[in-house]
């Protein structure tokens, strides 16, 4: 990826000019979720980890959205970047609706917590641990990581057809069942579609039976992260609904 050198240069400049010589840590999602399913240039995260560690910082991977096989090709998002973080944060998917989160780290970092008083009111809940173990079993037994890869790729390709058909669909991107559809006024300017227009499309999808999220700097990206057990038939329905919502928007604009 030709953009990687520019991003690394900017990141290094930030470290040299905007933070102390030594830093505590660097936290990043393997794919930016709320920002609209934005992926880094190839090798960026690997270079960023190296720069952080040179300055004494630990590298933290936020796997709340990318973990547990959602990206399809790997169980953890950081694996797609050929890096090993010092700390991994987990939540949401680990409990499949049950309120649960976890932190995984090295023995050295975990032991450092014993140097000061540290406690968590709900930490180590036996019920939460049973739920988490059951979710891990279900992911493996039901082949949900493979399903994320197969159905997610199918959905990306189907949504890409809408990108080619509608001028306001500026980009379709993602990996597995973590997908972003960026809405623009037109493909030449790539200016974000106005919020009121996106809201109409969003509401139309809801009224037709499909719930999707929103994200991006201007809330211009539809964030699609369905349950990992969905089928291609479910995708066909969702894409048909989205297509109808886009068609209604074009009719209103006309």
TrEMBL record:
A GO cellular component annotation in the UniProt record: mitochondrion
Domain of life: Eukaryota
Entry cofactors: pyridoxal 5'-phosphate
GO BP, one annotated term: L-alanine catabolic process, by transamination
UniProt catalytic activity: 2-oxobutanoate + L-alanine = (2S)-2-aminobutanoate + pyruvate; 3-oxopropanoate + L-alanine = beta-alanine + pyruvate; N(omega),N(omega)-dimethyl-L-arginine + 2-oxobutanoate = 5-(3,3-dimethylguanidino)-2-oxopentanoate + (2S)-2-aminobutanoate; N(omega),N('omega)-dimethyl-L-arginine + glyoxylate = 5-(3,3'-dimethylguanidino)-2-oxopentanoate + glycine
Enzyme class, UniProt record, top EC level: transferase
Localization annotation: Mitochondrion
Catalytic activity, EC: 2.6.1.18, 2.6.1.40, 2.6.1.44
Entry's Gene Ontology molecular function annotations: (R)-3-amino-2-methylpropionate-pyruvate transaminase activity; alanine-glyoxylate transaminase activity; beta-alanine:pyruvate transaminase activity; pyridoxal phosphate binding
One Pfam match: Aminotran_3
Keywords: Aminotransferase, Mitochondrion, Pyridoxal phosphate, Transferase, Transit peptide
PANTHER family: ALANINE--GLYOXYLATE AMINOTRANSFERASE 2, MITOCHONDRIAL (PTHR45688:SF3), PTHR45688
Function statement: Multifunctional aminotransferase with a broad substrate specificity. Catalyzes the conversion of glyoxylate to glycine using alanine as the amino donor. Catalyzes metabolism of not L- but the D-isomer of D-beta-aminoisobutyric acid to generate 2-methyl-3-oxopropanoate and alanine. Catalyzes the transfer of the amino group from beta-alanine to pyruvate to yield L-alanine and 3-oxopropanoate. Can metabolize NG-monomethyl-L-arginine (NMMA), asymmetric NG,NG-dimethyl-L-arginine (ADMA) and symmetric NG,N'G-dimethyl-L-arginine (SDMA).
Family: Belongs to the class-III pyridoxal-phosphate-dependent aminotransferase family.
Record text on subunit structure and interactions: Homotetramer.
UniProt-recorded name of the protein: Alanine--glyoxylate aminotransferase 2, mitochondrial
Organism: Balearica regulorum gibbericeps
